[in-house]
Amino acid sequence: MCAGAFFAPGFALAQTTKQSAVNLRPVPGFQSEGLELGTMLSPMLNPNTVQTLNSFRVRAGLKVMEEFDDNVFNTPENGVADKIFHIMPSIGLESDWDRHAFSTNFAVDKGYYEENTSQDFYDYILDTKARIDIQDQSNLGLGYIHARQHQIGNAPLTAPTAFDPANPFGPVVDTTNNGTIVYHQDIFALQPVFSTDPLIARINIDGQRWSYVNNNNVDLGFQNFWQYAITPRVGYQAWEDTSLYVEPQYSQRIYDSDQDANGFNQNSREYQVMFGLTYDFADVTYVDIGIGVVHSTFTDPAFTPTTGPTFDISGIWNATELLTLNARLLQSNLATTDFETKQVATNFFSLGADWEARDNLYFNVSGTYIDAVYQSDNLTPQGGFFPSEQRHDKTWSYSVGLTYYFLDYLTANVSYLFTDRKSNIEADKLTKRQWFLSIAAKI
Q1: Residue 17: exposed, middle, or buried by beta-carbon count in 10 A (0-12, 13-18, 19+)?
Q2: CA-to-CA distance for 391 and 421, rounded, in angstroms?
Q3: d(CA 169, CA 181)
Q4: For the segment 114-125, what is each residue's pLDDT rounded down to a tens digit?
């Protein structure tokens, strides 16, 4: 896990199936009052302009964090331990309107290693969202993210598939380099939503640009790519608490280079269709169950098309006024960037709990299990190249965290993350422990 993962890009422009999706149990908030933009700029503006700009609020924050990592380079054996000190400022602008919405936020994560100073990093993310309300339950969502993040070490912590069906490919890392890989990511998102009981329809349209350099600032051009996805969903409320839906998806990945470092064209397409239902009961329980099939095709004739089943089951249960449980079970058969195979069959399971122990004390725990099989038999040997042993990874991870809210604008957190990956490829096993201690303030 790299530090950049603390603010990994992601969009949530609208509810999944129903606009009235289950509301999570209220938990201690960390949202400051902020400052009215017009009042801040009032010495330079006339009263009318001040009044107009006061519909925006400015929020700023600063987080400092001490991290201890017992395997900073993600090595199979004899891991190097180090401490990393993070300075994480942020600033944002948010509208305060009865209709429509706009927000933009900029956050930085500057990391300083105590011993391995050559690995110091500077990550940042700019996140902008807008919502144009058309009717009571219909709107148009727009979003843009630009992020500079990094991966350190010679092994990604998860299989290179996506656990979000809206993102069929997932991140890419250079698994042959022991140093830091820096990548820039641009995400463009468009989501029209139309809802009139008992029908709801939405379309997720997104484009992403990924570009990479290594720790010597050399452009890894053969890894740079664009990916596009369009995912419509149509749902119908068949019963009071239950909706049925169909969700097809088309995705495409296009690399800058016609050939990667091993002479293969990595361009691919994905076709997926999912049928499912959602259950939404009294703001207490929300379940989304989808079952379908995914088909992958590849530009390179060395790789044959693949077809496999997929399902995605997720749920939230507000067990009490103070306790929320959530779970997800996912199976995917998706393309990967590994040159030795173009498909990974993945089973993913996660379980988490959030508990409000006191008015200002918040406890959370989560665990995940990932079983990933890299299906190398889809590769046809060419030019003397033969695939290696089919890889099979099993990864367990769990985290525990405790947050204390001193005030609405001041909080402290302590957390622990453990990751253990076993692989039939000996060099790809991994054990990693991380501790985090942070204090954050907002205005």
Answers
A1: buried
A2: 13
A3: 18
A4: 998 888 889 999
Helix (H) or strand (E) holding 49: helix 47-53
pLDDT at 35: 81
Contacts of 251 (CB under 8 A, 6+ apart): 168, 169, 227, 228, 229, 230, 269, 270, 272
How many CA atoms, within 13 angstroms, populate the side-chain half-sphere of residue 394? Answer: 2
Q: Residue ranges per domain, the chain?
A: 3-442
* Helix (H) or strand (E) run with residue 392 in it: strand 392-407
Q: Could you read off the pLDDT of 344-373 as tens digits, one per residue?
A: 778 889 999 999 888 789 999 999 998 877
CA atoms within 13 A on the CB side of 122: 0
For the domain covering 3-442, report its CATH number: 2.40.160
Kind and range of the H or E run holding 313: strand 306-320
The confidence band for 81, taking pLDDT boundaries of 50, 70 and 90, is very high
How deeply is 329 buried, as exposed, middle or buried, from its count of CB atoms within 10 A (0-12, 13-18, 19+)?
A: middle
